[in-house]
C-alpha cells in the first residue's frame, strides 16, 4: 500500500512538472503589458518647450521655496547657440535675493532640459550645467512692475558658453 501511494505521488509530481511551463527561465512577453526600461541611446531628441516652461515655472516659482519669485521666461535658440532667460522677481526684492533667483532660473532651465534629454549634465554648485556648454546665456532680471510696464531690467548680462559666473547685482 505504501508503495502504491509513493508511486501515485511520484506519478502526480512527474505529471505536474511536465505540464507546466517555467516563466522564470523562459519568460513570456504579453504584448498588452508595458515594456520594461528602455536602455537604448537616442540622438536628436526634440525638446518639448511647452512642457519645459510648465515644469520650470511649477518648480522654481514655488512661493515657499522662492518667496521672491514671480516667474521665469526663457527661449531656447540651440541652433544659434544661445538661451535667453528672464527672471522676474517681486517688487522690493533685495539685490542679493534677485541675484540668487537669477542663478536658480539659469540652473532650473538647464535641469529641466536635462530631464528631457539626458545627454545634458545637471547643474552643480559651480556649474550652470550641460545646456550651457554649447550655448551662451543672455540673462535679464526684472522686478515685476518694470517687466509688466516694459521697463528697464534690474540686471542684464551675457555669459559666454561653458563659463560659470557668480551673479552679483549691485
By oligomeric state, this entry counts as single chain
CATH superfamily of the domain at 49-159: Cation efflux protein, cytoplasmic domain
**Low-pLDDT residue spans:** none
Count of discrete alpha- or pi-helical segments spanning 4 or more residues: 4
Arithmetic mean pLDDT: 87
Cα-to-Cα separation, first versus last residue: 99 Å
**Any idea what the radius of gyration is?**
28 Å
- Fill in the CATH topology of the domain at 49-159: Alpha-Beta Plaits
Helix/strand/pairing category: alpha+beta
Short summary:
The protein is of the alpha+beta class. The chain is 34% helix and 18% strand.
Give an overview in words.
The protein is α+β, with helices and mostly antiparallel strands and 170 residues long. The chain has a domain at 49-159: Alpha-Beta Plaits (2-Layer Sandwich). It has four helices and four strands. A four-stranded mixed beta sheet has the order 1-2-3-4. Strand 2 (82-89), helix 3 (95-116) and strand 3 (136-143) form a beta-alpha-beta unit. Helix 2 (49-60) crosses helix 3 (95-116). The chain is elongated, with a radius of gyration of 28 Å. It starts with a helix and ends in an 11-residue tail after the last strand. The relative contact order is 0.13.
Amino acid at each position: 500500500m505504501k508503495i502504491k501511494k509513493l508511486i501515485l505521488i511520484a506519478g502526480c509530481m512527474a505529471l505536474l512538472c511536465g505540464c507546466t511551463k517555467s516563466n522564470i527561465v523562459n519568460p513570456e512577453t504579453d504584448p498588452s503589458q508595458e515594456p520594461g526600461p528602455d536602455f537604448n541611446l537616442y540622438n536628436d531628441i526634440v525638446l518639448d518647450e511647452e512642457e519645459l516652461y510648465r515644469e520650470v515655472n511649477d518648480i522654481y516659482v514655488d512661493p515657499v521655496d522662492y518667496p521672491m519669485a514671480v516667474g521665469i521666461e526663457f527661449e531656447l535658440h540651440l541652433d544659434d547657440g544661445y538661451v535667453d532667460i528672464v527672471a522676474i522677481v517681486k517688487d522690493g526684492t533685495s539685490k542679493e535675493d534677485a541675484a540668487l533667483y537669477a542663478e536658480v532660473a539659469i540652473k532650473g532651465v538647464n535641469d529641466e532640459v536635462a530631464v528631457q534629454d539626458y545627454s545634458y549634465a545637471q547643474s552643480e554648485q559651480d556649474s550652470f550645467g550641460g545646456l550651457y556648454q554649447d550655448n551662451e546665456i543672455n540673462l535679464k532680471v526684472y522686478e515685476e512692475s518694470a517687466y509688466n510696464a516694459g521697463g528697464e531690467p534690474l540686471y542684464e548680462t551675457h555669459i559666454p558658453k561653458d563659463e560659470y559666473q557668480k551673479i552679483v547685482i549691485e
